TrEMBL record:
Species of the source: Bailinhaonella thermotolerans
Pfam families per UniProt: PadR (PF03551)
SUPFAM superfamilies to which the protein is assigned, alphabetical: Winged helix' DNA-binding domain
Sequence ranges assigned to domain Transcription regulator PadR N-terminal in this UniProt record: 33-108
Record's protein name: PadR family transcriptional regulator
Length: 209
């Protein structure tokens, strides 16, 4: 069945229309979805979500299905993705998406040119510790302990994703990022342990008075 979607030259209603949806205009989440398609498989929206949950969620984004479909439509309008309807194994129709040549070129330009930006330390547990004067030392320890345990759980999941990626041809770079994620959660666990020690030291004068 014929694909829907247009090339970059055909998208929009006149010269420059595709550029308005091109690099610098698309949200980062759209580039992330296009990146999933860049591995060469035709995917349904649900399958895009599964790919995101495999590795992308550890370092960037865990999207809702509504977000996935919104970004896929954005990419189609830009001419960076195309879709077609096929018949699934159970006989039902399903829409699958693939990256276009224009999409590959645009994504490569974005990877090469996009500013990296500074590291971001945005942490809800740290925010609660910052507001520790409004709660009890015991509650703060509970919060940080729960965070520490969660980093351990996520680290194990990231390591599992790394081991899966290691077995997939063409996934050398996703494996490296999954390894980075596992190391990140390992370091976060150590930082949480350090915070627990800091909280204990802060609370020591109260306990001895």
């Amino acid at each position: 069945m014929e694909r829907s979607g247009t090339s970059g030259a055909e998208a929009g209603s006149g010269p420059g229309a595709a550029a308005e949806s091109g690099p610098g205009r698309l949200p980062p989440t759209a580039w992330a979805v296009l990146g999933i398609l860049s591995f060469g498989e035709e995917l349904t929206g649900y399958e895009v979500r599964r790919w995101a949950d495999h590795i992308l969620r550890f370092f960037y984004w865990s999207p809702a299905m509504s977000q996935i479909y919104r970004e896929l439509k954005t990419l189609e309008r830009a001419g960076y993705a195309a879709s077609r309807v096929e018949t699934a194994a159970d006989g039902r129709p399903r829409r699958v998406y693939a990256i276009t040549e224009d999409g590959v070129a645009a994504l490569a330009r974005w990877v090469a040119r996009e500013d990296v930006g500074p590291p971001v330390f945005k942490n809800g547990t740290a925010l609660r510790v910052w507001l520790g004067h409004l709660t009890t030392p015991d509650r703060l320890r509970e919060v940080v302990t729960a965070y520490r345990d969660e980093t351990e759980r996520l680290g194990a999941q990231a390591e599992h994703s790394r081991s899966v990626a290691a077995e997939v041809p063409g996934w050398a770079h996703p494996e490296l990022v999954a390894r980075w994620a596992a190391r990140y959660y390992e370091s976060e666990r150590a930082l949480a342990e350090g915070m627990l020690a800091d909280l204990a030291a802060l609370d020591a004068p109260r306990l001895t008075s």
